[in-house]
Structure formats: C-alpha cells, structure tokens
Write a structure and sequence with these properties.
Number of domains: 1
Distance between the termini: 35 Å
Largest sheet: none
Shape: globular
Radius of gyration: 17 Å
Number of strands: 0
Length: 214
C-alpha cells in the first residue's frame, strides 16, 4: 500500500500545480501574486476581477482535484477496499500542490477550493452541509477566513460520522488521520488570518480597506 500512497500523493501534487488563478491572470495580464492579498486563490481573483472570474477560478481548482480523485477511486483502484483512502491521499497531494506549486516558487492558494473538491468526491452529502455552514458564518460574521476554517474542521468530523458511525469502514482511523492533515494544512495556510481574527484586525467583507485573502 505504501507505494500506492506515494504514487497517489505525487500524482495529486502535480495535478494541484495547475494554477487556475495564474491562468486567469495570464489571460487578464495580471499577476495575482502582486495584487491584493498576493494569493493565487479564488478569493483574491474575485476581489480583483469580480464574481465571474472568481467562479472560473474556483471551478478550475475544483476540477483539477476531483478528476484525479475519481480516476483513483473509481477506475485505477476501484477493486481495492481502501480506494477512498487512496483518494484522500491523492486529494491531499492536490491541496499541497495548490498551496505550494513548485513552478511558481511554491506560492499558491490556501487550499479551501481544493479541499472542497476532495470532500465532494469522498462524500457528496457533505457539500450542502458545508455550503450552509460556510455561508452562515460568512454572512453572520463577514469573515471569509472564519468560514474557511469551519469547513476545515467539518471535514474530519464528517469522516467520523460517515465512515465510522455509519459505515464502520475498517480504514477509518487511517482516513481520519489523513483528513486531520488537511485541517492542519488549512489552518497553517490561514495562520495570518487567525492572528488577525484573534487581534480583532481581520478585514470583513465589504470593508473599504483592502482585504486579505481567505
């Protein structure tokens, strides 16, 4: 299994290196690393170019994750009882590749769009729950970063509900450990946002001051 895990991580990493924000920026003659928050992610694109290009960026990042995961889970390793575990490793590789693309000097996004694709592929039922939680928090607090962090916490909790309580999956512990890696990674990528949230200086949606990307 170890060799398969390594292959899935590597394959996911290279898929994650496809930066939709960079491609959109190339099309619009903008380097998002030098604009706004400096992140190659959906939020920075949306704040710079509007909802249309923000959505294009999101769905581009979504597809670069869900396509390799579907291939791993339902095609390449469809007969393995741990295929979803391998899918999680593939998705984690994608998230790392999205956050740290080697060809862009390891400067990418913060991983939320990529992680949402992983969650959708592992269990589509989590998407409506995640959407409600995310927008409820964002609309009530005006903090996009806080909604993103809530989704990162939801993932391991959902895995516990779905694959331990409901399915009694024999690979549950291993799957939980991997999903906790997602949570830790997202929290690390949002460490500056967390500091501003704690200090009460995080910018809110609609604030006139230039906002930091979540």
């Amino acid at each position: 299994m170890l060799v398969k895990i390594i292959c899935c991580l590597l394959a996911g990493y290279f898929c994650g290196n496809i930066s939709t924000a960079w491609l959109v920026g190339k099309y619009k003659n903008i380097d998002f690393r030098k604009v706004g928050s400096g992140n190659l992610g959906t939020t920075n694109v949306m704040r710079t170019l509007g909802k249309k290009y923000g959505l294009i960026t999101y769905f581009g990042d979504f597809l670069k994750v869900i396509i390799p995961m579907i291939l791993v889970i339902y095609v390449i390793f469809a007969d393995e009882d741990y295929n979803k575990l391998l899918g999680l490793y593939t998705g984690y590789g994608c998230v790392i590749g999205h956050c740290y693309p080697f060809w862009l000097h390891f400067k990418g996004g913060k991983g939320i769009a990529a992680m949402s694709a992983v969650m959708a592929c592992i269990d589509p039922l989590v998407i409506p729950v995640g959407v409600v939680i995310f927008f409820a928090i964002v609309f009530s607090t005006k903090y996009v970063s806080l909604g993103s962090l809530a989704i990162a916490i939801l993932f391991p909790l959902w895995i516990s509900l779905r694959f331990f309580i409901m399915d009694e999956n024999p690979h549950f512990v291993h799957m939980l450990i991997v999903t906790l890696c997602y949570t830790v990674t997202v929290f690390y990528m949002h460490r500056a946002n967390i500091g501003r949230l704690l200090n009460g200086t995080e910018n809110k949606i609609g604030h006139k001051k230039e906002e930091k990307d979540a």
